[in-house]
Amino acid sequence: MFWGDVIVDNFLEEYGAEAKKRKLILRDEKTLSGRPHVGSLRSFVMHAVLSDVLTEKGVDNVFHYEINDTDAFDSVPDYVPAEWKEHLGKRLKDVPSPDGKEENYPLYFAEEYMRALIDSQYNAEFYISSAKYEAGEYDKYIKLALDNKDEIREIYRTVSGSEKPESWYPCQVVCDKCKKIATTKIIAWDGKEVEYSCSANVKYTQGCGHTGKKSPFGGEATMPWKVEWAAKFCVMDVDLEGAGKDHYAAGGSRHVSNKICKEVFGRKSPFDVRHEFILMEGAKMSSSTGIGATAVELEQLLPTHIFRFMMIQKDVMKTINFQPDGDTVPVLFDQYDKVCDDYFYGKDEDVKAHKNRIFELTHSYEENIADMDRYLPRFSLVSFYVQMPHVNIYQKVRELKEDELTDADKAELELRIECAK
């Protein structure tokens, strides 16, 4: 049985009749600390596919994808000018764009990333995290966190073993002088304003020493990740949200966030889904350091249906090890071709049922999947022919087919030629 159907069936079993009464919310996010790497696509596609499966089952839903621009800027990637280190410690939204054209640093990277996600033909509604903060949607949860700091400290201690000092507050405000957020520490909270000191030193930057008093509301503060994640469940009214398996380790961030969501914010935590990673030649990737191919590069490298096929053919709890050179791409095309052939001409019903589901979801954006029955020349052969300028590839493929090429045949061949080049 296809992994997406298994997850959705379990989800609907837990939600019961409630699932038919209102629009269900799925959510995921990406922090734009640099060019998003290929690995970030695993979570996006998982949620998008689950949204598609729910829609197929007649369950009204929407998949919200957040561009997180409120985290602290904590490292300067190699492809960003070194002088950007002067902005370390600020919220990403307060860091200027490297090209001087976009509104800020994260939107510089978000533009091409969101375009690539849209090109992948998955349904998602995008939003910017800072807009929610500035609109006051997090104010309630900032106040609850500050009012219940000792309860949150206890959750950290009992769930993850993390000991927070009594003076710790689950919130940081923007320094009015240097505009950093990573270096501020709240000293006191009177229910309306906080006293703070920009005196903390983190491994990548230092505070300016300023002290002051201000309201933490209206976009002037953020919460630490585990507390903020719980608040996001509430602000977006999330029913289903998954994450990488590392968040689900014993005492991991998801366990802490779920407990804060229930016990401090008073809301049921979303349905949990976990996934494995995409590795680049066996190694985990990082946006902020620039390790690994970018999501945009991969989406541009592969035709839409091959990209979608690669992302869904394996169970989400199995690792995808992607290498853009060698046999990886040709083998991927061969695997797709076999699934396509089984869909239209397969005889083994047990095998066919599973492969058909993968094929259908690979092409769910097409108006008519029946039109996908076309001649598929081996990608390795197309790659060989494109290196021979005097060879008429269309003629060669027609000879292999032993018939004239249809418009659909030609369109697929042109995609493979472009990808091979």
Average pLDDT score: 93
Instruction: State the helical fraction.
Output: 40-55%
Assess the beta-strand content as a share of residues.
5-15%
Q: Tally the helices: what do you get? A: 15
Radius of gyration: 24 Å
**Which term fits the overall shape?**
globular
**Strand adjacency order, main sheet:** 1-2-3
Structural class: alpha/beta
- For the report, how would you describe the main beta sheet? 3 strands, parallel
End-to-end CA span: 36 Å
Poorly predicted ranges? 287-291
H and E string? HEHEHEHHHEEEEEEEHEHEEHHEHHHHH
Please count the beta strands (DSSP E, at least 2 residues each). Answer: 14
Describe the model:
- The structure is a single chain.
- The chain has 421 residues and is an alpha/beta fold.
- The chain is built from 15 helices and 14 strands.
- It has helices spanning 3-15, 40-56, 105-119, 129-134, 139-147, 149-160, 225-235, 253-263, 295-301, 304-312, 328-345, 349-362, 379-386, 393-401, 407-420, and strands at 24-31, 61-68, 125-128, 172-173, 185-189, 194-197, 201-202, 205-206, 211-214, 221-222, 240-244, 271-275, 278-280, 320-322.
- The strands form 6 sheets. Strands 1-2-3 form a 3-stranded parallel β-sheet.
- Helix 6 packs antiparallel against helix 8 and helix 13 (379-386) packs across helix 15 (407-420).
- The longest helix is centred in the last third of the chain and has 18 residues, at 328-345.
- Residues 287-291 have low confidence and may be disordered.
